[in-house]
Amino acid sequence: MPRKxxxxxxxIVSDGTGTIAYRAVTDLVCVQCGxxxxxxxxxxxRAQHAPTGAIGLKTAPVCVACRPLHMEEIAAAPMEGxxx
Length: 84
Ligand SMILES: [Zn+2]
Known about the structure:
Elements: E1 5-13, E2 18-24, E3 28-29, E4 36-37, E5 42-49, E6 57-63, E7 69-70, H1 72-76
Antiparallel strand pairs: 1-2, 1-7, 2-5, 3-4, 5-6
This protein binds zinc ion.
């Protein structure tokens, strides 16, 4: 299954909660506002209730306009040679 995003690292959302930032590899759509998340843009993911009949939780992309990300840790300590 082709990957649609790269995991970038930990980030802080505007409300102070921690999340994981991702970078889009292909164009995605924000589940909250429907805006396109273009390749190379940062975004976060949120848990989404699975459709009826499906098992478990799915995660769906949310754009930075809906959920601004603060990447202080990443800016302070760039990650190099991270696998995965
Ligand atoms: Zn959005």
